[in-house]
Amino acid sequence: KAGVTQTPRYLIKTRGQQVTLSCSPISGHRSVSWYQQTPGQGLQFLFEYFSETQRNKGNFPGRFSGRQFSNSRSEMNVSTLELGDSALYLCASSTGGDSDNEQFFGPGTRLTVL
Amino acid sequence: GNSVTQMEGPVTLSEEAFLTINCTYTATGYPSLFWYVQYPGEGLQLLLKATKADDKGSNKGFEATYRKETTSFHLEKGSVQVSDSAVYFCALSDYNQGGKLIFGQGTELSVKP
Predict the structure, then answer these.
(1) Chain centroid, CA A39 distance in Å
(2) Which residues pair with B95 in a beta bridge?
(3) Using CB atoms, which residue from A44, A48, A90 is nearest to B99?
(4) CA B91 to CA A92: how far, in whole Å?
(5) Does residue B95 carry a pLDDT above 80?
(6) Closest residue by Cα to residue A81 from A96, A61, A97
(7) How far is the C-alpha of A111 from the C-alpha of B2, rounded, in Å?
(8) Disulfide: which of A13, A38, A55, B23 matches A17 by Cβ 3.0-4.6 Å?
(9) Inter-chain contact B49–A102, Cβ cutoff 8 Å?
(10) What is the pLDDT of residues A35-78, one digit of tens each?
(11) pLDDT per position as a tens digit, B37-55
(12) Residues of A with Cβ-Cβ distance to B36 under 8 angstroms
């Protein structure tokens, strides 16, 4: 079974631009969560989608948004990029439903904002 | 709100030494507890989990016991190897929060031959 894939793996943008990151979950998984990882703040939850609906949302500004498609693939979008948005963005998928479900993480997208 | 606190790193050990990484949590509900490991340049992998009080999670020689009375979930291994060098994250998820994980700040482990 293929793992969680994220594209692109690396991205360089400039301040003010917007960016879209993609995540393909493990086949059969209906939940996709997104996390931001930075040296200063660690791993922070952005949002979770389950069956195309946002189920949970973290404490990030509205510039961060996401969506999930009917095939469970998910995208997250960051508009008006700031230097502080430079981070590793990880997505994780699970079968969904229960809080003790194992989350399977992708390798991440490394975003650099110049 | 819910939170997780881990001992700060980096932790440097010699091969075959005993490892303990402390983790304590604060939660209003009945969380499930996890240890994830991140190798350089990779995403996170689940190492072990425990879903209720007194459960012991174990995998690859690592163990952690869910202690409700001390709100702790310390990670232990009796004899570490160089290949265990990685960053370890303690995390919790609450029963009404779906897939949302709250992570500790991570502890970097370096094992020297």
Answers:
(1) 17
(2) none
(3) A48
(4) 14
(5) no
(6) A61
(7) 28
(8) A13
(9) yes
(10) 999 998 999 999 999 999 998 899 999 999 999 999 999 999 99
(11) 999 888 899 999 999 999 9
(12) 105
Q: Retrieve residue B12's tokens.
A: 């440097």
Interchain proximity A58–B100, CB inside 8 Å: yes
Q: Which residue of chain A is at minimal alpha-carbon distance from B98?
A: A99
CA distance A92 to chain B (A): 9
Structure tokens at A86: 């430079």
Residue of A nearest to B93 (CA): A99
The verdict on a CB contact (< 8 Å) between B100 and A35 is no
**Euclidean distance between the first and the last CA atom of chain B, given in angstroms as a whole number:** 41
Single out the residue of A28, A19, A24 nearest to residue A7, CA to CA. Answer: A24
Helix, strand, or coil here: A106? coil
Give residue A98's pLDDT band: very low, low, confident or very high (50, 70, 90).
low
Q: Which residues of B fall within a CB distance of 8 Å from A24? A: none
Q: Tell me the CB-side half-sphere exposure of residue B101, using CA atoms within 13 A.
A: 34
